[in-house]
Design a protein that fits this description.
The complex is a heterodimer of chains A (342) and B (169). Chain A is of the alpha+beta class and 342 residues long. Helices cover 30% and strands 20% of the residues of chain A. In chain A, helix 5 packs antiparallel against helix 9 (163-169) and helix 11 (281-294) packs antiparallel against helix 12. The longest helix of chain A has 21 residues, at 305-325. Classes of the chains: A alpha+beta (342), B alpha+beta (169). The complex binds flavin-adenine dinucleotide (FAD) and FE2/S2 (inorganic) cluster (2 copies).
């Protein structure tokens, strides 16, 4: 199907982009890789007058070392991230999460900025205009009721990106550019957990960079996701685990979950449950319980909420055991060659 | 919607054309340029029948605005044949039944071409992984797998005999 009418603007610098955003704010929409936005335009979920295409801003591409950590430009593709030896070595959980996004073709196009700013998803929302018209509009788009939680006024569309839980575990910060210059925000303060107003980004701002701290570099990590087709689909439940060990004991740990709430969320109490202990099946299961309690899946996708919550518990347990079994003193397997995209 | 002049580099040729800013690359290729090799197989960016290469990297032309592709090198299946004859991989697909109805084939060609350019000697896992974003409704994946392995073998033999001729000279 064709796309709605709009004017395409192609800034070459961040300054040009913020100028255009300031000028057109409410009437404009950002496009990066387009793998989320273009299908949504086809379904008439948006009708912007101006589309601001960031692709020509070369400054926003690529991975750079900084103070022992790494800076990732918002336009860096997921393929580049998946293939970066630095990321695989220092932040293995991000390497794993990036590798599971969609398909190789979509990762060649999709960017980390777009993955962080991904729109929330729901069975009643990600549908064609005709479908939505026939079944009745919802709070998130054109309507005033929720088909998932009837009677409620909150939108429960699920945040379904794979890299944000990994980034939350790694204590990533993001850099945001706007009319007043740039600001930095911990990723954990970026999301709202409200499906139809998912993130704290003004309509005259854009995300420019992801900053990974030296503190979590070298922590072992595992990402696991539940999806229908293993080669392409969005997560219907996803969990990221990172662990820092000293000898056989856990020194510090984080778990974050995705696709089961309107935001990717850090699970509270994980560091307390694991610190100073040697991981075994029972402790791993306790952490799984914590994660399952944080998950509030509703009928926003093709699998039942009960099953998705149960898989959060199971995947968390398995991932904690697996992360604890990784020997942090050994160099990790290197991913294949440099990317050809960036 | 008002048309704008855009410049596209496709299969080594630079073309100027007037096109609406909301037009997808797939539609410009098929409707404006008559390059109907690339196909539309789905409406949700999930099948890969529309795969083309952008600066050598396979991407979905149904999910890209044509105007966003200016200043980049676009390659379509029409550009895959070598000097007017079939490329090794095209021939192998024919020999091994890698194409049944053939609708998905142009997309697969662009993905496989990139795989073999990047890595002339891929493992079975590499091949399966690379193909995982293209869907075949006729489900002829095994035949494609055999065709790809045959093409790799043909290339290897070709290289070996070239080296031999060069050595004999
Ligand atoms: C079939 C299919 C399967 C998919 N499966 C997965 C999956 O398994 N896991 C997953 O995580 N994703 C999946 N996706 C979604 C998508 O491919 C990725 O999330 C990708 O990373 C999105 O990035 P993009 O650059 O293409 O985003 P775009 O589509 O360009 O943008 C997405 C959103 O973010 C905003 N945005 C983008 N960049 C910026 C920026 N720098 N600053 C401010 N706002 C910005 C846009 O305005 C838009 O609202 C899938 C998509 C498809 C079509
Ligand atoms: S037509 Fe199906 S992915 Fe492009
Ligand atoms: S050969 Fe028919 S769809 Fe693949």
């Amino acid at each position: 199907m064709s796309l709605p009418d709009f004017q395409l603007l192609r800034p070459r610098t961040v300054a040009e982009a913020t100028e255009l955003l300031a000028k057109h704010a409410a009437n404009a929409q950002i496009v990066a890789g387009g793998t989320d936005l273009i299908p949504s335009l086809r379904q008439r979920l948006f009708a912007p007058r101006f589309l601001i295409d960031l692709r020509a801003i070369v400054d926003l591409r690529g991975i750079r070392a900084r103070d022992g950590g790494l800076d990732i430009g918002a336009l860096t593709t997921l393929t580049t991230i998946e293939r970066s030896p630095e990321i695989a070595q220092k932040y293995p959980v991000l390497h794993q999460a990036a590798k599971t996004v969609a398909s190789p073709l979509l990762r060649n196009m999709g960017t980390i900025g777009g993955n962080i700013c991904l729109d929330t998803r729901c069975l009643w929302y990600n549908q064609s205009l005709q479908w939505r018209q026939s079944c009745g509009f919802c709070i998130k788009k054109d309507g005033d009721l929720c088909h998932v939680a009837p009677g409620g006024s909150k939108c429960w569309a699920a945040f379904s990106g794979d890299t944000p839980p990994a980034l939350l575990c790694l204590e990533a910060e993001i850099e945001i550019a706007g009319p007043q210059g740039t600001r930095r925000v911990p990723l954990s303060e970026f999301y709202t957990n409200v499906g139809d107003a998912r993130m704290k980004l003004q309509n005259n701002e854009l995300l420019t960079r992801v900053l990974l701290p030296v503190r979590t570099a070298g922590w072992s990590g595992v990402y696991r996701k539940l999806r229908i087709r293993g080669s392409i689909d969005y997560p219907l439940a996803g969990i990221a685990v990172v662990l820092k060990r000293s000898n056989r004991h856990v020194a510090d740990a984080r778990v974050a979950i995705t696709a089961v709430n309107p935001a990717p969320l850090l699970v509270k109490g994980v560091a307390r449950a694991l610190a100073g202990r040697e991981v075994n099946e029972e402790i791993a299961l306790q952490v799984g319980e914590l994660a399952a309690r944080t998950a509030k899946p509703l009928t926003t996708s093709a699998l039942t909420p009960e099953y998705r919550r149960e898989m959060i518990r199971v995947f968390t347990k398995r991932a904690v055991l697996e992360a604890a079994a990784i020997d942090q003193s050994l160099p990790r397997a290197q991913p294949r060659g440099p990317s050809t995209v960036d | 919607m008002k048309k704008e002049l855009i410049t596209l580099k496709i299969n080594g040729r630079t073309l100027e054309l007037a096109s609406e800013p909301n037009k997808l690359l797939l539609d410009v290729l098929r409707q404006d340029l008559g390059l109907t090799g690339s196909k539309r197989g789905c409406d949700d960016s999930s099948c890969g029948a529309c795969t083309v290469q952008l600066d050598g990297v396979p991407v979905l032309s149904c999910t890209l605005l044509a105007a966003s592709c200016q200043e980049r090198e676009i390659a379509t299946v029409e550009g895959i044949a070598e000097h007017g004859s079939l490329a090794a991989i095209q021939k192998a697909y024919g020999d091994w039944g890698g194409a049944q109805c053939g609708y998905c084939t142009p997309g697969f060609m662009m993905t496989v071409d990139h795989l073999l350019t990047e890595n002339p000697n891929p493992s079975e896992d590499d091949i399966r992984h690379a193909l995982s974003g293209n869907l075949c409704r006729c489900t002829g994946y095994m035949q494609m797998f055999q065709a790809i392995k045959a093409a790799i073998e043909a290339e290897r033999k070709g290289r070996a005999s070239e080296a031999q001729t060069a050595g004999a000279r």
